[in-house]
Predict the structure.
Amino acid sequence: MATFFKIAPAFAMLAATACTSVDQGLGEALKYDMAMQTIDPDPVYPADGAQPGDNAEVGVGAVRRYLQGTVKEVVPATTTSSTTGGAGASTGPK
């Protein structure tokens, strides 16, 4: 009977670990990053776009404008084409 009390906790812990699930997405972020570098290991950035390392210069200007209260207004995005409601389109509550 004493042997049972020595083995029972070990068996219970072993049985409990068998019920845990394994994360199937483990390592997906690493795989995604590797794929992005494989697709384009040396990306070409547009001249007027954000460049690696220029965030500090842009950030300093943004902080200064914020502290002075002269923040740039947000320009809403617009599209060049319009669509009309079709099958499944919602016009909102009536």
